[in-house]
Specification:
The chain is of the alpha/beta class. The chain is built from 6 helices and 7 strands. It has a single domain, classed as 3-Layer(aba) Sandwich (Rossmann fold), CATH 3.40.50.1820. Strands 1-3-2-4-5-6-7 form a 7-stranded mixed sheet, with helices on both faces.
C-alpha cells in the first residue's frame, strides 16, 4: 500500500489526488500550500510519492525519477487503492500532473488538474509533450504561469490541444508560480489564485464524461 497524505474533510464529496514534481517531495512548501488551500475549500486532497521519491525519503540518497512506465503504474495503483477513478480528480505539480494526464482517460477519472504543465523539457522547446493532449477526453484544468519556461503563454498559443482542456494563466508566474518583484505580485497571491481556480473547477465537475 502506498503511503498517503491527507488534507481536507474526511467525508468530502470530491477528492483530488496530487503527485509531486520531479525534484521535490509530496510535502514541499508548494504542495503543502496547494493541498491545505484546496482542502480548506471542502475538497478532500490526497498526496502520494512515486517510488524513487519514497526511496529518497527512506535512504536520504537522491536519484533520478523512475522511468515513465513505473510512474504510470504508481498512479494506477494509487487510484485503485482509493477505490477507482470514477469519483476522483487527479493531477499534480509538473511531472506529477504530466503523468496523470497520460493515464487520466484510461483510469476514467472525473477530472485532471495540472499545476505547471511541462509542455517541453528545460531549454528544449522543440521536444514537445503534447501529443496525447490533442485527444484527451478528461475535463482538464492547467494552471500555468505566464513566464513558465516549460510552456509560456506565447509557447502554448501555438499548440493543438483538446477542447476539454482549459488553461488558466497566473500573471507573471514562473514554473512554480513565483512572480518577479517588478510585477507587484507575490508568490502567496499567485498560490491563492491557483487554489481558487482548482477548487472552483473541481466543484463544478460532474460524473458525466464526454
Amino acid at each position: 500500500m502506498t503511503e498517503l497524505l491527507y488534507d481536507g474533510p474526511e467525508h468530502a464529496e470530491r477528492t483530488l489526488v496530487l503527485a509531486h514534481g520531479a525534484g521535490a517531495a509530496m510535502d514541499s512548501p508548494f504542495m503543502n500550500r496547494i493541498a491545505a488551500g484546496v482542502g480548506a475549500s471542502g475538497i478532500r486532497v490526497v498526496r502520494f510519492e512515486f517510488p524513487y521519491m519514497s526511496a529518497r525519503r527512506r535512504t536520504g540518497k537522491r536519484s533520478a525519477p523512475d522511468r515513465e512506465p513505473v510512474l504510470r503504474a504508481a498512479w494506477m495503483e494509487v487510484i485503485e487503492q482509493l477505490g477507482g477513478g470514477a469519483q476522483l480528480v487527479i493531477g499534480g505539480k509538473s511531472m506529477g500532473g504530466r503523468i496523470a494526464s497520460l493515464i487520466a482517460d484510461e483510469a476514467g477519472v472525473m477530472g485532471l488538474v495540472c499545476l505547471g504543465y511541462p509542455f517541453h523539457p528545460p531549454g528544449r522547446p522543440q521536444n514537445l509533450r503534447v501529443d496525447h493532449l490533442r485527444d484527451l477526453r478528461t475535463p482538464t484544468l492547467i494552471v500555468q504561469g505566464t513566464r513558465d519556461s516549460l510552456g509560456s503563454r506565447t509557447d502554448v498559443a501555438g499548440y493543438d490541444l483538446s477542447r476539454h482542456i482549459r488553461i488558466a494563466w497566473i500573471e507573471d508566474g514562473d514554473h512554480s508560480l513565483k512572480a518577479t518583484k517588478r510585477s507587484g505580485r507575490t508568490l502567496e497571491q499567485n498560490l491563492t489564485e491557483a487554489v481558487g481556480l482548482v477548487s472552483r473547477f473541481i466543484s463544478k465537475l460532474t460524473n458525466f464524461r464526454q
